[in-house]
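Entry type: protein chain
Record version: 2
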Amino acid sequence: MDFTFSQEERAIRQTAREFAEEEIAPVARHHEDSGEWPEEVWEKAVDAGLVGGTIPEEYGGAGLSQVETCLFMEEICRVDAGMLAAIGTEFGTRMIREYGTEDQKEWILRGVAEGELIGALGNTEPEHGSDAASIETTAEKDGDEYVVNGVKTFITHGTIADYVLTMCRTGDEGHSGISALIVETDRDGFEVESEIHKLGWNASETAQLRYDDVRVPEENLVGYEDAGFYQLMEFFEEERVGIAAQALGIAQGCLEETVDYVTQREQFDRELREFQAVQHKVADMAMKVELARRLVYDAAARVDDDEKPTKLASMAKLYASEIAEEVASDAIQLHGGNGYTRDYPVERHYRHTKIYQIGEGASEIQRNIIAGEVLDL
């Protein structure tokens, strides 16, 4: 497998790195501590063409490949993963890109790419996370409208979104009775029920949403009725590889912070890096990061080759998310007492890591998928 990046891919990585270091690094701690959504950074990202990267160029996006998307995500998360979640306002656009009508694409894709719309994806419910087939939010047909009732939770951008691509039950129980509807947040009956306060990712607000007889026109149906779950499944590999790239970015950032720290810090009249115990810890961190990188970009390249690397995507997501926490923990340990304070980024990185073992399929789900692929279950 050739892991050499093209000139264009290296340029994308450099652009993302410069944006992260110049625009995100100076304000990341403030937004993480305050919980304020970084609107000014998002606006700069829109102006720089860094929002809606996967949206096709014909609708105002950058049309990035999966490898390019991963490079962008890794570089931003290397500085602060919570800020990536904050400025990433294209939730739900992948399904619209693939299954939406031309009017929906012009409305949503172009709107997001140009910074006119902020999107959210409404799938998880208070009683149903990993068990997506059991969602209870309903959308009943009434003439040329759907009437939506239910509750969605852990919705990124729930408080600021202009629309929520909402997964609703329109048919029988199970996977085959779910549809995807674009629900504008200014419709009667839609409300932000509560904000959710989290361990990390605090620059990106999260909310629980309630739909109380929200009427949505039938032209807001994305794709086919009762096929929403299968449409969503089409992008799990892309989503999981992207999540893996974000976790990789955190691990890389922690490794770099640690190398800088043990080079500059002295104990017993010696630089910390001169102690063998420190060297071994750093060696293990570097090895984990490199192995994660190989998995992530192998899976990303296969997605770009129109493969469906279910097993490899789950491996990348599982491994990268778990080593991110391990590497971040080691980074704090090597920073000593300073690592436990908010004066150093590794503390913030550590808090960000946990979500990557939960979102887009928990680690336990990834192990089930991998075992199913290996054992042909």
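Comment: The longest strand covers residues 145-156.
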